Every structure is written in structure tokens, then in C-alpha cells.
Amino acid sequence: MKAFYDAGKLVCVSLDAVTGPQVFLGGFALAGRDLKQAHQYLLDFAAEHGNCLLYTPITRFP
Predict the structure, then answer these.
(1) Distance CA 40, CA 35 (A)
(2) Are 22 and 9 in contact (CB under 8 A)?
(3) How far is the C-alpha of 56 from the C-alpha of 9, rounded, in Å?
(4) Who's near 57: CB < 8 A, 6+ residues apart?
(5) Are 59 and 53 spatial neighbours (Cβ–Cβ below 8 Å)?
(6) How far is CA 55 from the centre of its chain?
(7) Exposure check for the chain: N or C terminus, fewer CB within 10 A?
(8) How far apart are CA 46 and CA 54, in angstroms?
């Protein structure tokens, strides 16, 4: 997991949702979730807190 800050504020969190670690946001486990369920939760959570959501899935190649 990596956290990125700008001007002292958290602006980005990077995690590997396949291998962990398990990360929770507002009590919701982010890793190992159904993608559609997690996507909707993240959209709703961001909207409730006046934020936007941007994420990029990364595909690993052997």
C-alpha cells in the first residue's frame, strides 16, 4: 500500500486488491470484493464526502 500527499493532504492511496493488504474504507473491505459492489461503494463514499473518484486497475503480466 502506498499513500500520496499534496500540501499535507491525502490525495491518493494505491493498493494491490488481489494480494492485499486488506484495506478498509468506512468499514468496507476494499480487497477481494465484487468489482461492481466496490465501485458503487467508492462512488457513493466520495459523493458523501464532497470528493471525486479516480482509479485505474492495473493488469499484471507474467
Answers:
(1) 9
(2) no
(3) 21
(4) none
(5) no
(6) 7
(7) C
(8) 10
- In this predicted structure, what is the pLDDT of residue 7? 93
Prediction pTM value: 0.62
Burial 3-17 (b: 16+ CB within 10 A, else e): eeeeeeeeeeeeeeb
User: How many Å apart are CA 10 and CA 32, to the nearest integer?
Assistant: 23
Backbone angles phi, psi at 6, to 5 degrees: -140, 125
AA letter at 39: H
Task: pLDDT tens for the chain, 62 residues: list them.
Answer: 778 899 998 887 777 666 667 778 889 988 777 888 888 998 899 899 888 877 666 665 55
Amino acid code (one letter) for 15: L
